[in-house]
Amino acid sequence: MSTAAQLFMTLNRLATVAEAPDEATRRNGISRDEFLSLLGIKTSAPGAALSEASERAFERAKQTLRDAGARITHFTTDTSGRYRLNAEAPNSLTAWNPTAKEFFLLNAELRGWEGTELQDEAYRILRKIALTSEHLTDEALTAANVTRIEEIKRDNQPPLTKTVKQRARDLHAYREHIQRLHFSDDPHLYELFTAYAQRKTLNFTYQGSGGDIKTYEKVSVAGLIYSYGSWYLVAHFPLGNKTPEERKTYTYRTDRIRSLDVFSSIDPAPINPAYEARTRLKKISGYEETLTVLDPNPGAEDPAAPFTVPSYGAVDSAIDATCAGWLIQPHHDANPASGKTLTGRQQDSHAAQRELLRELIALHTGEPETPAKWFPTTQRSRNDALDALDDLILALHRADRWADVHGETPMPLNKLNPLYRVDNNNAAKLDKIINAIYDEFDEVPFYSEAKDPDAANPARLNLLPEFSDGAASLTLLNYTRLTDTELAILVFTLSAADLMYSGDPRPAAILAALAEAYPRTTDYAKHLLFAPEDPRLQEARAALASGRALTITYGTRAAERVVDPVALTLHRDRLYLHAWCRASEARHLATLSEDAAAESPAAGEAKPASAAGESASTNSTSAEPTPVEPVFWRNFRLTRISSYAPAGEAQPHYIGPNHDSTVNDWHAKQHKTTTNPSVELRIHPTDHTPGGETLENLTATYKRRSAEHARKGTKTTHVRVHYNNIAGAGDKNIIDTVIAHRGSLEITGPAHLRAALLEHLTALANANPASPREN
């Protein structure tokens, strides 16, 4: 596989073909043989065919360059193929320079992709913004007097707060204090965003609502929508003899895609100009049918009578019913008088549940395989070729700007490396790729002084680009820009920010500035949409925009409560109103008053002064730490709020950088806190993963969520995930998750949780007249 050093020098060569001595290279680009040589791919002879392994390496290298933003064009000439960059004219490119206030929002919203397939892309966007925006240099931040609040934690006491000057190296901490978004993951997100942005065609197999599998070929992506708790692919089929205006759009739920292949071929026809995600959303129906189910363990006074529930697909219904402890009946009388029965969705769902029970019971019967050793799961570092390539290009861009300001002097790496902390708070180490380029190539387009030139891997002190004008304009301007895929992800993120930040002008301002720098932004905003559905959403947004307190009724309690709302948050497909609950605060203060009254001595029973002094002296020698003031931040799920009413002006409440009271924060703490209980999961290869997720993707997903993992050789086989178990809700959530994975996850520990799942499944199977145990 080509190294980051080889990829960089290849990109540099492609960017400087205008300076080549021969006309063929200047006109059509570098030859195939030179391209392969730069990438480190060997051939048996000039022009010779590549081996299968070398061909795969060549395709991977070209794709990595494209992922970095290089639009490589292949020319077939009379003698051989040639390659060059199809770059926009540098003069036509407008720089995008988010302000500090805009970055403050973006730095929080892009972190909504953490733990998903798009985490690396979101981090890459953050690095590009931090290292290229003219408003985020130390000089600009100082001139604008940008500051932030820092909190110093103290045991059993409120934190100390202080105001500090914002520096470019500390942008990781410069963000909104409430993490409002936590996007839902899907194993196909990167491929779908890339196929949309680059107009690539794809083939996919799809499981319909009845469980039937179909294959769709030569499909192009017209848009992506998140709504109703699911991701939707909006697709076009080949244009044929139709006009673009006649192209129909078709919508598919991505969690029903079983497999997906993206091809290099481009759909030459444009997306239907009439297509807009917002209008398409109105046409997405739930495909809802009803199923007859039976609860085999009804309450003491409830008869075991069948009842109906909504159904959105046979497999989905089998999972939902099994989690709830219901039996899907084998048939449903449509009209008892006619003697006819419905055996479509009802019978398919019944069969799917029987198969699900059979598979999970077999998987959890007997002794589990447990690993001998666990390894801590650490956050991924930027260590692959694409990230290293991007990091060096961004470094050269920043060093070039440093040289302009500081009289053409090299930029010290001890000032450059910390700028990369913006995403995961880890500084970069550019020495490795710089040393690799110096070792492998004679002519290097930059200068970097070595601390000890004779060392095997010398530490580098500084960096100064030495590009000619043509190369600098292409390399430094084009490839520090967002790629098409990154732009699509950012536009979608801004769609979410616009909804979550009610009344905030920043998302619209950022989108307008993006459109000036990236002309495709306007189309992307039409085709990509974040629109979680909730009947109370608009009321909640209006309440937040008004700045007023609210009186709400919540859940099954009839009592009203007054709250001060501050934000909407999204976690696992559910919307929450994050608010300070005055009712909880009032109950706490009332309890304190009662306790104080009970502890105070009655009139005439005051202690003598000597006794009081003795008591005070005793307390002073064994004084306890000051208790932390309780907080009354609460998260109200919108679907459980039954009424809203304005209640005067909202009271201000302190929200600091260590604010950790949202649902997102709470769940994140459970997954990484070893004092919480943990579940041990074994990952099995199976076709029944949600959304057709490959074993590699499933493993990566759960490894991201785990505190520890175990492996055989280089493959992860087990993960250990910590969780909170208030009133058994955590155990129930784990069991439901394992059921939903249909055999790709097995509980191997703790024993009580494995036994609880097996008992649940066996009870359902034995209650079924046609149970798997009897077949």
> Class by helix and strand content?
alpha+beta
Whole-angstrom Rg: 30 Å
Counted by DSSP, the helix tally is 25
Instruction: Give the CA-CA distance, first to last residue.
Output: 52 Å
- Which sheet architecture does the biggest sheet show? 6 strands, mixed
The domain tally reads 6
Helix content: 25-40%
The total beta strand count reads 29
Mean residue pLDDT = 84
Our estimate of the beta-strand percent is 15-25%
**Inertia-based shape:** globular
Low-confidence stretches: 338-342, 606-627, 770-775
Short summary:
With 775 residues, the protein is α+β, with helices and mostly antiparallel strands.
Question: How are the elements arranged and paired?
Answer:
Layout: H1 4-15, H2 23-28, E1 30-31, H3 32-38, H4 52-67, E2 72-76, E3 81-85, H5 100-109, H6 119-132, H7 138-143, E4 147-154, E5 157-165, H8 189-198, E6 200-207, E7 213-227, E8 230-236, E9 250-253, E10 257-266, H9 277-283, E11 289-294, E12 307-311, H10 314-324, E13 327-328, E14 332-335, E15 340-342, H11 345-363, E16 375-376, H12 385-405, E17 411-412, H13 413-416, H14 431-440, E18 446-447, E19 462-465, H15 469-478, H16 484-500, H17 506-517, H18 521-527, E20 528-530, H19 537-546, E21 548-554, E22 560-571, E23 574-581, H20 582-599, H21 609-621, E24 633-637, E25 641-649, H22 663-672, E26 678-683, H23 695-705, E27 708-712, E28 715-722, H24 729-740, E29 745-749, H25 751-767
Parallel strand pairs: 7-20
Antiparallel strand pairs: 1-3, 2-3, 4-5, 6-7, 6-10, 7-8, 8-9, 11-12, 11-13, 14-15, 16-27, 17-19, 18-19, 21-22, 21-25, 22-23, 23-24, 26-28, 26-29, 27-28
Helix pairs in contact: 1-12, 1-14, 6-12, 8-16, 10-11, 10-24, 11-25, 16-17
